[in-house]
Amino acid sequence: MMLSQADVARRAGVSIMTVSRVINGAENVRPETREKVLRAIGELSYYPNAAARALTRNRSYVLEVLIPHEDYFFSSEYFSELIFGIEKVVHDSDYNLIFNTYDPGQGAEYAALYKQRKVDGLVIVAPASNDRTIVKLHEESIPFVLVNGQVDDLEISFVDVDNVAGAFQAVQYLYDLGHRRIGIITGNLLVVNARHRLQGYLDFLSEKDFPEVEQWIFHGNWSEDSGYTGFSHLVNLKDPPSAIFCSNDLMAIGAMRAAADMGVGIPEAVSIVGYDDIRLASFVNPRLTTIHQPIHRVGKTAAELLLRLLSGQPERPRQVMLQPQLIVRKSCEAP
Amino acid sequence: MMLSQADVARRAGVSIMTVSRVINGAENVRPETREKVLRAIGELSYYPNAAARALTRNRSYVLEVLIPHEDYFFSSEYFSELIFGIEKVVHDSDYNLIFNTYDPGQGAEYAALYKQRKVDGLVIVAPASNDRTIVKLHEESIPFVLVNGQVDDLEISFVDVDNVAGAFQAVQYLYDLGHRRIGIITGNLLVVNARHRLQGYLDFLSEKDFPEVEQWIFHGNWSEDSGYTGFSHLVNLKDPPSAIFCSNDLMAIGAMRAAADMGVGIPEAVSIVGYDDIRLASFVNPRLTTIHQPIHRVGKTAAELLLRLLSGQPERPRQVMLQPQLIVRKSCEAP
DNA sequence: CTGTTAGCGCTTTCAG
DNA sequence: CTGAAAGCGCTAACAG
Q1: Tell me, what's the pLDDT at A237?
Q2: Which of A81, A126, B55, B201 could, after both became Cys, cross-link A295 (CB 3.0–4.6 A)?
């Protein structure tokens, strides 16, 4: 039993246009008429048909979040904070949220749902930085906001946390403690974040005229396991680093695990800095010094930008770069 | 520029019905005709309008996942595995996924989107077990699957992991090691999972004719902090437990943190068992003995059940109860 | 195998 | 302030 405006109209003794006006909160309806209609709607428990509205208004009131496929994702905590941040804003609006994954390897067809008019706009998370498809979206003036991935030279809305600055800060801190042999365990370098964090590390070294020591760069993949392996590897070098910057907390915790298994004291023998400030960072032993990122805020901001893009008022694209923050705990000390 | 079948039809020199048939993969179209149409579609880069299809077919091909609001959620890892599990199955189908949160406190209006025909079915995660709304959904024969929350005496599809059995197993293990004073740190008892895990603990005690020691039950809320507080509390009792079952790993890790801060040896002085087997469980020190849950599979199964419910063939509701598994690591030993 | 007709439930436009 | 008519883009039902 699918009710339509017609049923409501009949019951209330008005035309379907009046019903439509009431539903859409139009001004020009006599209060008593509005009442009648509202009552009829309540009695019948009528709900407007979303498909029909979408068809006539040419708007679905659905947004899409595109997230890289699970295997590419750095941490469940990052993921869930981001999603909840986006959802919170969308939930308070007239929109709904379609959740979708894509494979960063393939040339993703981000716009498929948009072109079917199934969604009105996109939040694209962590696209490859050389992604031509993004440029196409821009050319077709499809409303979208990037999270965690910029495209050079294009006036595109994005929200990001400054990974280069964060990594720079981490290494700076180790340097200021007195460390001169600083290693890094990188994330999966296919992901921009990993490249930027490596960049921050290298930037600092070159600023201080450090020799860039190839050996001290270990290529991890965000996983605890790769942190474990990376630590063992670096510490067993003939000239091992006295401090290690891990590109995420998961790898830092993997490294700490390796240290425990090897009988290497943290921070006495080796200092460790992580990245992300996941909740568990302050519960491991020793508590992990790390870089905090306002992920929840990234999600909220992205949703707000997109909503504004769709609001009707002409709106220029905006670039928002949030700043990460060093959280000093107990996993570092002077060499 | 919104193209319609009419444009394609004109270009291909056929009727719109033929275009429709090609799009829907109907059998009865001459190969050459099909070719012509396909070519026209390609040349114009035409996409069918989802709203129009939804309107005529009376199906949106969208599913909705309803998840308790962030604050009620036990862990980001649980959340993200579940979502990715669901998404994986949905992604391989013709459907899309709308992601939504609800407040378990309020009498949630789960069916709003369904009634607007914006979605075809629901996956409802962790509804309150006394939730009357669920019964209503069932009476209105709205297609839905419950995850992690059953309603007694109703023929409803659900997928769950047996929390009572899992907790029972955990306590059994501690008992078999020789522990006779076993405490528990519970989760937020507003959530069924927490109640079931407490139930499993109590079931075991009563089976062994243990006195149920009120003192040894600490009411936590899933957070690391509450694990920390709970441990301190229990260990400072005049007659402290020699082993503690924590209702999730986060609290177990909080407890281990407290132990470290208090100088209490784990497992020498106190044994600890967790629940969930989050990835970090095997990276803390000592590695955490815990109960593993196949969450990804829960998500996939739920999606599969819902899809089958919508498949057209009459399908009886199914109850799937997956079994958790004890993972023995290093956080327990004989007293 | 292909086309014609009607209508899904709504909103836009124009009349009153 | 209210209503009548037309049409959004598609598919079901029937003809041929």
Answers
A1: 93
A2: A81
Q: For residues A37 and B165, which has the higher predicted lDDT (pLDDT)? A: B165
User: Domain B163-293, what architecture?
Assistant: 3-Layer(aba) Sandwich (3.40)
Q: Which positions of strand C lie within 7 Å of protein CB atoms?
A: 1-5, 7-13
> In the structure, how far is the CA atom of residue A187 from the C1' atom of nucleotide C1, in angstroms?
58
Instruction: Identify the pLDDT of residue B74.
Output: 67
Residue of A84, A123, A300 best to disrupt the B interface, most CBs of B under 10 A: A84
Fold of A1-47: 434 Repressor (Amino-terminal Domain) (1.10.260)
- At A229-268, the pLDDT tens digits run 999 999 999 999 999 999 999 999 999 999 999 999 999 9
B99, B109, B253: best to mutate for the A interface, most A CBs within 10 A: B99
For residue B231, give every residue at least 6 positions away whose Cβ sits within 8 Å of its Cβ, in sequence order, or none.
Answer: B185, B244, B254, B255, B256, B258, B259, B270
Q: Which residues of B141-168 are buried (b: 16+ CB within 10 A; e: fewer)?
A: ebbbbbbbbbbeeeebbbbbbbbbbbbb
Domain map (residue ranges) of chain A: 1-47, 163-293
pLDDT at B71 (0 to 100) = 66
CB-nearest partner of B70 from A58, A84, A116: A84
